[in-house]
Write a structure and sequence with these properties.
With 384 residues, the protein is an alpha+beta fold. The protein contains 15 helices and four strands. The longest helix has 37 residues.
């Protein structure tokens, strides 16, 4: 009894020839999802954020590692359309000259209006590897003067304390923040299916053992353990990639038991259904019954649970990185970027450092909207 039907049966084709419309379960779910306006908005936002994160090097005007110490805490660039020479259809910026306030000893940035630097698309800049494979130096946008000079900066979201472009670091940070949830799901879903499926199907002693094991993991205090593991990984001198994988493993360790228990409950109900009894009578072995007959019928739950677990993992990673126990330099994540705005003085001086927090809020809301729409779409009492 598969969740998705491939193609149309002979009976469906005959009904369509007689004027009846026959739709598969997947088609009905898609029709129900399309009617959910908020869910469509969530899907579009998620796809946009994924695209920006995957191709972050291309959409970023500068490398997320490059420091421009001359422009520390520079505010967002102002796009001009008018100057002393008149109106321009092409937006442009001016080069910034750095001066110091003799009273406060703070840096002041004064625009040098002697030359325009126009906003241009598909410009050549710092080299990088697209998708980590293809070497190139083409960036989506940048600023260039008419004579080809590029000594002006464009900071759409301002700069941090090292003069690094916040936009570039935010887009790169999206790779980590957006990848945490799916990677955790890839680990916990197979574990939950195996543990919950076997527990619910066999029952008895196997069920007792697996449920007590799951309760042990559910009793682990999540945040304290994650803080301890994050501190341990940071103190071992491991590479940024290994620490990131360690965070993924830590999140998976404390997250699989809840999903396994829900799967176990659904398997308990499905194992008494007629199609399972028919499969047993046909001589199907237990593993085939679980994988081919029972698990496809809980796919709807897995889809909805996945879209709801992802934002939870994103928030957990953001909290760890904000506290300094998650992603570390030189890697970047939205939570790690927010760590620079951990006091009122930094926020007052450079409020644009809160921009990664806006990305967190938008992405979490988008995933929640998407999950809510999928939940309604897969509800058998609402599919039409």
């Amino acid at each position: 009894m598969a969740f998705w039907r491939r193609g149309k049966s002979k009976e469906q084709k005959q009904l369509e020839e007689q004027g009846y419309i026959s739709r598969s379960q997947g088609e009905m779910i898609w029709r129900a999802f399309r009617r959910h306006r908020v869910g469509r908005i969530g899907l579009v936002v998620v796809l946009v954020l994924l695209t920006l994160s995957i191709f972050a090097d291309f959409f970023s005007p500068y490398s997320y590692k490059t420091q421009f110490n001359k422009y520390t805490y520079t505010g967002p660039s102002i796009l001009h359309f008018r100057s002393e020479d008149g109106f321009s259809l092409r937006p442009f910026v001016y080069r910034l000259d750095v001066t110091f306030d003799s009273e406060t000893f703070e840096r002041l940035y004064i625009e040098d209006t002697s030359k325009r630097y126009y906003l241009s698309f598909f410009v050549r800049g710092e080299p990088y590897r697209l998708l980590g494979v293809f070497p190139t130096n083409v960036h989506f946008f940048g600023v260039r003067a008419e004579d080809g000079s590029d000594d002006a900066m464009i900071y759409m979201f301002g700069a941090d304390r090292f003069g690094r472009d916040v936009l570039s670091r935010t887009l790169i940070g999206g790779r980590v923040s957006m990848a945490v949830g799916p990677l955790v799901l890839l680990i916990i879903v197979p574990i939950a299916i195996v543990m919950g499926g076997l527990s619910g199907y066999y029952g008895g002693g196997i069920d007792m053992f697996m449920q007590r094991l799951g309760e042990v993991f559910m009793a682990i205090p999540g945040l304290p353990i994650l803080l301890v593991l994050g501190s341990l990984l940071a103190g071992m001198g491991l590479s940024a990639t290994i620490r990131f994988l360690g965070i993924i493993a830590s999140l998976s360790l404390i997250s699989w038991a809840g999903m396994a228990r829900v799967i176990r409950g659904q398997v308990l109900a499905l194992r008494e259904m007629d199609f399972v009894t028919a499969a047993k009578s046909a001589g199907a072995n237990d593993m085939r019954i679980i994988l081919r007959h029972i698990i496809p019928n809980i796919t709807s739950y897995l889809i909805v649970a996945g879209t709801l677990i992802i934002p939870g993992m994103m928030l957990t990673e953001a909290a760890l990185s904000f506290l300094g126990f998650g992603i570390q330099e030189p890697m970047s994540s939205w939570g790690q970027l927010l760590n620079q705005a951990n006091n009122i003085a930094s926020i007052e001086r450079a409020p644009w450092l809160l921009v990664p927090g806006i990305f967190i809020v938008v992405s979490v809301l988008a995933f929640n909207f998407l999950g809510d729409a999928l939940r309604d779409a897969v509800d058998p009492f609402s599919i039409v």
